[in-house]
Amino acid sequence: MKLLFIDSCIRGPKSRTKILCDHFINKFTAKNPDWQIERVSINDLEIEAFDLKSLEERNELLAKKDFSDKSFDLAKQLMESDQIVLGAPYWDLSFPAKLKAYLEQCSVTGLTYIYNEMGIPEGQCRAKALTYITTSGGPIGDMNYGYDYIKGLCKLFGIEKTYFASAEMLDVIGVDVQQAIEDAKVKITEIVEAL
Ligand SMILES: Cc1cc2nc3c(=O)[nH]c(=O)nc-3n(C[C@H](O)[C@H](O)[C@H](O)COP(=O)(O)O)c2cc1C
Predict the structure, then answer these.
(1) Residues 45-99: pLDDT tens digits?
(2) Is the dihedral of CA 187, 86, 98, 149 positive or negative?
(3) Predicted TM-score (pTM) of this structure
């Protein structure tokens, strides 16, 4: 069984979101010692948002149903995961743009989802759940557009459950950042127990 860690913590070792992701993975590994943990680092990926040329190239492959090209490797990796944890800082009311470029690579008709004879999309991913972890400078409130979008994508991909954990207000002067992180860790521990 495999847990996929989608590491979109752009600030790497300075990232507070990464601290929470590491906590998730520590708890998860303690509970499931026989699981394989696979990490995909958004920082390390040589991907860009689709443009006319790259989209046409991909459309040609899709028309031939030729999924052997390495450009489909990320979609296959996602499809073949049994659990997913996605860590991304709260940027501009959502998440970093490079994560969107990654999700474009993963969203493939014929792989991550198919259309049935009625034209209804059917998700093809086997992951039971995706846990979304973020931290923010201020409050997120009802402007949780990154997580809302991920929830929609999970529905399309056939991932039935999503969980959310955050540490918020981390850039507000006077806020006890360490306490906010500890509180988020408690929530994350509960999520791992529920998985
Ligand atoms: C490019 C950028 C955009 C941001 N946009 C927001 C925002 O819209 N709302 C907010 O509350 N904080 C925003 N922040 C602050 C981050 O959410 C906050 O510092 C977060 O903890 C960063 O996560 P990290 O430590 O994992 O990098 C932004 C930070 C950056 C660098």
Answers:
(1) 999 999 999 999 999 999 999 999 999 999 999 999 999 999 999 999 999 999 9
(2) negative
(3) 0.97
Task: Give 187 Cα–ligand 1 centroid separation in angstroms.
Answer: 20
Which of these, 132, 129, 130, lies nearest to 166 by C-alpha position?
A: 132
Q: Which atom of ligand 1 is nearest to the CA of 140?
A: 11
Nearest-angstrom CA–CA distance, 37 and 193: 17
Mutate to test the pocket of ligand 1, among 95, 145, 171 (most ligand atoms within 8 A of CB): 171
Angle at 76 between CA 190 and CA 111, to 5 degrees: 105
All structural domains of the chain, each given as residue ranges with its CATH number in brackets, are: 2-194 (3.40.50.360)
16 lines ligand 1 (CB under 6 A): yes
- For ligand 1, atom 27, the nearest C-alpha belongs to 15
Q: Give the model confidence (pLDDT) of 124-153 as tens digits.
A: 999 999 999 999 999 999 999 999 999 999
Q: Quick check: CB of 87 below 6 Å from ligand 1?
A: no
- DSSP-derived letter for residue 80 is T
